[in-house]
Predict the structure.
Amino acid sequence: MNNIALGRYIPFDSVVNRMDPRAKIMIMLFLMIAIFVPAGIWGYILIAAFIILALKLSKLSLGFALRSVKPMIFMMVILLVINILVIKTGVPWLQIGWFSVYSDAVYQTLYIVVRLMLMIIITTILTATTKPLDLTLGIEKLLHPFEKVGLPAHIIAMMISIALRFIPTLIEETQRIMNAQASRGVDLENGSLKEKVMAVLSLIVPLFVSAFDRADQLANAMEARGYDPQKPRTRYKVLSMHSIDYIGLILSVLILVCCISIQVLGLA
């Protein structure tokens, strides 16, 4: 669990780091919508090309982005097993007695895995190039028009920012608890399935206790500093859009339009 990428800010002096957080959030949303458009391999190639360009401009390595996908590998394997057992359409690739593997099961799994990978990498680029406070301010500014209908924009932005910020913290806490239990003789890697489940359960309880304790400390610290989400606030940093922000938005919109066009024209 070391070197976790998702939710960790990397203070590089890059083009993407200097972009307006509102633009980066909107780019992420446009790309997320494009991912769910069934545009086939050509749509995914367009999105992947944009992601590689973003990684290059943000000075992040592809390996750093792929590390954010590692926690999802177990879920992807489970998904593959379920699809193999449930989906029985397409060309049979393997037949051993009652057990069979069909092409549609593998294709459906790859389809979902590619979507998940693209979404996770896009989110990783956003959190790695945007300070938590800037991310909060960007979300709040984007949600500000909805305050007229009673939406608490600042509270929602703060919750999202804190959740993203605490992802690497909780993972590091998990690693610390695992090391502490390993030093006491708990084996999380070997043993029967029942023993592994019991070891994981012994890990979950102290992790939840630690998470609630950190949440309580954060709440007390915010209250001690007079934080009131209902009060009007002034900003030391004023957000402003620049040419690179508009270029990124235009490119993301073009990718979304291309994906929709591919799906409508039946080119997928």
The first strand starts at residue 92 and ends at 96. Residues 193-224 form the longest helix (32 residues). Strands lie at 92-96, 99-102.
